[in-house]
Amino acid sequence: MTSYFALSTPQSAPHPPLRGHIDCDALVIGGGICGILTAHLLRERGLDVVLLEAGRLSGGQTRGTTAKVTVQHGAFAAKLLRTAGRERAQAYVAANLRAVDALEALALRSGADCSFERVPAFVYTLTEPGALEQEAEACALLGLHVESTRRLPAPILPAAALCMEAQAQMNPLPLLRALAGPLRAFEHSRVISMDGPCARTAQGSVRAKAIAVCTNYPVFTLPGAYFLRLYQQRAYVLALKGVQPVGGILYGIGPGAYSLRSAQDAVFLGGESHRCGDARAASGCYDRLRGAAKRLFPDAQEATRWSAQDCMTPDGIPYVGRYSMRMPGVHIATGFGKWGMSNAMAAAQLLADAITERENPLAWAFSPQRLPGPSACVALAGQAGHACAGLGASLLPPPLRTTESLAPGEGAIVRDGLRKLAAYRDEQGALHAISPYCAHMRCLLRFNASERSWDCPCHGSRFSVDGELLCGPAQHGQPAADRD
Ligand code: FES
Q1: Distance, CA 473 to ligand 1 centroid (Å)?
Q2: Helix or strand or coil: residue 274?
Q3: Mean pLDDT lowest for which of 181-185, 223-227, 258-262, 335-339?
Q4: What is the pLDDT of residue 397?
Q5: Which pTM value belongs to this model?
Q6: What pLDDT score was predicted for residue 482?
Q7: Which residue ranges have their beta carbon within 6 Å of ligand 1?
Q8: If you ran DSSP here, which 8-state letter would residue 412 be given?
Q9: What b-and-e string marks burial along 59-77, b requiring 16 or more CB atoms within 10 Å of the CB?
């Protein structure tokens, strides 16, 4: 399904695919919010910039954002102090505060109709008031002012809530469309290989003095080994019409707490977040969201629904800086968690400074080469465990189930003689069967019943029931079952 912003914002005029060779100062790979902002800032500084996008500009995860522009990243402060330490957490806060202001200035300057407005941000809980007491103390340590409250601008009675004033919300798509207009951008131009400072697509190549990889999940498996240091999380959203607007942006923690914001004539209700590839958690996500919508807004009508996927780092701080010490001149920005607005702007500023060799006092905190602290090591071990389990599952013998046992609308890994199939039977009874081994590193896929997709539990690639690539790190679709 399509997001509310994608439905309500006209698409930009298409950019051509890259054909032939170009030499330039800077190449940005990835035309989502981070890539477009980075290319825009570099162009403003006088660089000759090329932007390559595998699909359409703003066509990936950026389309699915709910665009909460805030430094209050849920109950983030206590966790960040634990995982990253005080100094790094302070740098993260400073970069995001600066990014919120920069997005506001850019929105104003661009004249784009992106509905940027300052609103209060709330983090609330129905069940865990102690967690928010700790969060308030952590915010104070980081120099952030939050007010404790039991009143929310929504029909929710929390056990505890913290309010941070003067945060913001927007629709980023008109802004990105305006910024992309003057860029030398190429769509349907997936980078398939890199040879030093030269990136190649199917029909062309770009040689640049500096390259910024802003592809949500990094496009190259090695060097950098980001697949060992990132995992992907999914979340689901309903846009509801016919309800009272919500007076701020709300983020719920703990059981039964959802996130909310208003946008034009709708309210977004989001949540049910889970690690990509967790088939049990994915099942029934939209039904549970609809149940919550019914309780909170009995008269609401569902306008649209959609899902989004976020890259998470073990310490909660994005990786922004050198892609790898073995790739001089190549930079990366990834791992924005669920906070892709302010983090994307912060990353674009850091990348623009790194590429134009301007000193940025916050850059050290985001270095992709940083060593993980003790609690980040625990998260990394968990990530390795998930990957091993996914790879191990692909080595197990086929299950007893066969395609005949699949009911309409059902998908499962089934037996076909001695081999496995990822098989889905559609509502009309037709069978769709693809290879069950992920095109990235051959983990066994799992069926996501809410999205009718095949999701990988190892690093979060996703495929349609016919094998079309929906999300990386895989760089191509799944082969049909008979070509495995
Ligand atoms: Fe890496 Fe599937 S094996 S995403």
Answers
A1: 7
A2: strand
A3: 223-227
A4: 77
A5: 0.93
A6: 63
A7: 227, 438, 440-441, 443, 456, 458-461, 473-474
A8: E
A9: bbbbbbbbbbbbbbbbbbb
